Automatic annotation (TrEMBL):
MF (Gene Ontology): oxidoreductase activity
Reaction catalyzed: 2,5-dichlorocyclohexa-2,5-dien-1,4-diol + NAD(+) = 2,5-dichlorohydroquinone + NADH + H(+)
The keyword Oxidoreductase belongs to this UniProt entry's keyword annotation: yes
Organism: Sphingobium nicotianae
SMART domains xref list: PKS_KR
Family in the record: Belongs to the short-chain dehydrogenases/reductases (SDR) family.
Name this polypeptide is given: SDR family NAD(P)-dependent oxidoreductase
């Protein structure tokens, strides 16, 4: 089979498929033969508003190139609406083989400034929306019985695997997606479903909101564009294809660099030989461990190897979280 027809006869749902990485995913799947349901609510990056135009534009692009696609604006944050989205794919295309959970939003602020509404909406879209679509797809696949070649590709984030300050709910939601991926890979294996996740580093509306990323994200005048969304879609295509032999894995993608995460690995192990620790022995054992408090990881120039974080480090972290100092600073955009 040629690469151009790698997914001939397959049907895919791509959420958040109207722009950025999701658009690239939808175009890539269609280019390789899949019929694609392009789902995008058309909201801003904080989840406000709706607009059918992004999904419709991608569908038009696919159809103009000879592909098969349909636009959908379902809000996948609602559990039952996610079921309706799966039903829509089955009604229009007759089957479902590939689910690409790409839709995501973010809220800006620390745990101190987080609102109940912002927290709930971010987790609803990023985590619950991913879980809901997997639930309804799994129910359909279970009713059909086991079959080879089914794939779920979820979207975690470097902010989920290595959380920075300034977007707490987003970090938590993306860490949850990684855990969801690992847990469900085992649950769905008997149905022939491979479940993997991407933690992508590429240009998007979200990265446009972070000034510290401007230089990193800028496209070169010539040569390889490390931050192009297409770099993420190349791995997505592999994970969606019959060539993939992985399940339950989290893949970081940064240009041509691919990283496989090993869960929340325990890099240090201390043992007391089968006896209960007393406080003095525990303190002595922990004295041998390098101090790498999160404060110092975020503000390495303020790093000290011993003692409490200096006042200036805590002040700097507070300013970073509030968007008032270099670090993770968010532009006030919602487009």
């Amino acid at each position: 089979m040629s690469k151009a027809g790698l997914l001939n006869g397959k049907v895919a749902i791509v959420t958040g498929g109207g722009r950025g990485i999701g658009r690239s995913h939808a175009l890539t799947l269609a280019r390789h033969g899949a019929a694609v349901l392009v789902n995008d609510l058309g909201s801003g990056i904080t989840g406000s508003g709706t607009d059918p135009a992004p999904a419709e534009a991608v569908v038009a692009e696919i159809q103009d190139a000879g592909g098969v696609a349909h636009a959908d604006t379902t809000d996948i944050a609602d559990w039952n609406s996610a079921g309706a989205l799966v039903d829509a794919a089955l009604t229009r295309f007759g089957r479902l083989d590939i689910l690409v959970n790409n839709a995501g939003i973010t809220q800006y602020g620390s745990i101190e400034t987080e609102s109940a509404q912002g927290w709930a909406r971010t987790l609803a879209v990023n985590l619950t929306g991913t879980a809901a679509l997997m639930h309804w797809a799994a129910r359909h696949w279970a009713a059909q019985g086991p079959a080879h070649g089914r794939a779920v590709i979820n979207t975690s984030s470097p902010a989920g695997t290595n959380p920075p300050p300034g977007a707490t709910s987003y970090c938590v939601s993306k860490a949850g997606v990684a855990a969801l991926t690992v847990a469900t890979a085992t649950e769905l294996a008997h149905l022939g479903v491979r479940v993997n996740a991407l933690a992508p580093m590429a240009r998007s509306r979200m990265t446009d909101a972070v000034p510290i990323l401007d230089d990193i994200m800028r496209a070169p005048e010539q040569g390889f564009d490390r931050m192009a969304p297409d770099n993420i879609s190349r791995l997505m295509l592999y994970l969606a294809s019959p060539e993939c032999r992985f399940t339950g894995r989290i893949f970081g993608v940064d240009g041509d660099d691919i990283y496989l995460f090993e869960g929340m690995s325990a890099e240090t192990h201390l043992s007391n030989g089968g006896a209960a620790w007393d406080q003095d022995a525990l303190a002595r054992a922990l004295d041998s461990v390098d101090q790498q408090d999160r404060a110092y990881m975020i503000a390495p120039s303020l790093h000290t190897r011993a003692g409490s974080p200096p006042r200036e480090a805590l002040d700097a972290l507070d300013r970073i979280a509030r968007g008032e100092a270099p670090g993770i600073i968010w532009r006030p955009i919602d487009t």
